[in-house]
Amino acid sequence: MNYQKLTAICFGLLIIIGLSCGVAPSLAAETGTLENEIEQCLALEGEAALAGCDRAIEIDPSSAIAWYGRARALETLNRTPEATTADTRAQLLAQYYNCLSTVLGRRQEVANLLNDEERIAEIDRAISSGEVDGEPLNDEQKQRLQEIREQILALQQDASSLDAKTKNTLDQCRTRLQEILQERF
């Protein structure tokens, strides 16, 4: 396994520990109603579609699909400036959900790494030998692997800290989205 692969495996750990990005907004209690409104929003045309989208947004203002549908409906009504604003909001929300998905996926990768003795042993061998697949590691690479190993040890000693760090990362992502939405809208 080369250094790039080794660090790619461990990259998720750094994302969770070092990056900050919100807890996914909960769906409205009226999920059936939200789904119905989004269905109308996307299936209908013109004012009827816009009305469905607006009702869906009232139920869940964080629905990227509803904002996308609103943008599409406004465009068909030749209300281009409003359509552009709705499209921008839909794109921001989609990026936010992508961030959530990435963070949660990385969290799972880290959890898997914590239980993968073979991968941890590879990191230990690379640190002790100063090489990966016969290729020497430079000082920066060695330092990075040592930091990763220390983080793995800390997480193994306190597994609940992984969830706490993930929640913190998600909360910061949500906060940043809210800041961006306030700045732009």
TrEMBL record:
Query: InterPro entries, alphabetically?
Result: TPR-like_helical_dom_sf
User: Quick one: signal sequence residues?
Assistant: 1-28
Source organism = Lusitaniella coriacea LEGE 07157
Name by which UniProt lists this protein: Tetratricopeptide repeat protein
Keywords from UniProt, A to Z, are: Coiled coil, Signal
Lineage top rank: taxon: Bacteria
Residue ranges that the Swiss-Prot or TrEMBL entry lists as coiled coil: 138-165
